[in-house]
From TrEMBL:
This is GAL3A protein. PANTHER family: ES1 PROTEIN HOMOLOG, MITOCHONDRIAL. The gene is Gatd3a_2. InterPro entries: Class_I_gatase-like. NCBIfam families: PRK11780.1.
């Protein structure tokens, strides 16, 4: 039978939701590997809405589930309906929505809180010993919830190629082990069944990001 994988989105758009290319890559690679994706998002207001042309917040208000449905082509469920028993794995793409709508990382860094619903889902998969795939900024969720876990967000030294490297330092302060990696590589925490890859934490060609996410998806399915 096809593996059933929950994909949790955080809106639609890199600056205030899920990173669309990352979410699409996850769905494409799951399809290519013969897995069945089930897309979920929390039915909550976004922290804010960003004009992606100007890069500035606007006074609009939008809903995370409604916006995520754009990526899922309408085939999406409220995260509150997720039942870990019928699923084999979990994947959370990145984008600032992870740090703004699924957690408060964007405003509080390592002192953030993770939404109770999202934390509950992560803990449920972890307790059931089912693999969790994380890319871009989403490994911070694991760093916050699972002390001592191993993840990657790319590199821990800031430079033009790795503009968000300070994220790795903040994760280390939470007690997790950060493993430097290239954009096409993944890190597998075999104890916690976490598979992570840096994606757009790196200034890399989009096909390299796509390839890294493909490697993450394949490792998640291998562990499932």
């Amino acid at each position: 039978m096809a593996k059933r994988v929950a994909v949790v989105l955080a809106g639609c758009g890199v600056f205030d939701g899920s990173e669309i290319h990352e979410a699409s890559a996850v769905l494409v690679h799951l399809s290519r590997e013969g897995a069945q994706a089930e897309v979920y998002a929390p039915n909550i207001p976004q922290m804010h809405v960003v004009d992606h042309v100007k890069g500035q917040p606007t006074p609009e208000q939008r809903n995370v589930l409604v916006e995520s449905a754009r990526i899922a082509r309408g085939n999406i469920k409220d995260l509150a309906m997720l039942d870990v028993k019928g699923l084999d794995a979990l994947i959370i793409p990145g984008g600032f929505g992870v740090a703004k709508n699924l957690s408060t990382w964007a405003t509080q860094g390592k002192n953030c809180s993770v939404s109770k619903e999202v934390e509950g889902v992560l803990r449920a998969f972890h307790a059931a010993h089912k693999p969790i795939g994380l890319c871009c900024i989403s490994p911070v969720l694991a760093a916050k919830i699972f002390p001592g876990c191993e993840v990657t967000v790319g590199h821990d030294t800031e430079c033009e190629q790795w503009p968000y490297a300070k994220t790795a330092e903040a994760m280390k302060e939470l007690g997790c082990r950060h493993v430097n990696s290239q954009v096409t590589e993944v890190h597998v925490d075999t104890r916690n069944l976490l598979v992570s890859t840096s994606a757009f934490m790196c200034n890399a060609p989009i096909h390299h990001v796509h390839d890294g996410i493909g490697n993450m998806v394949r490792e998640v399915l291998r562990l499932a």
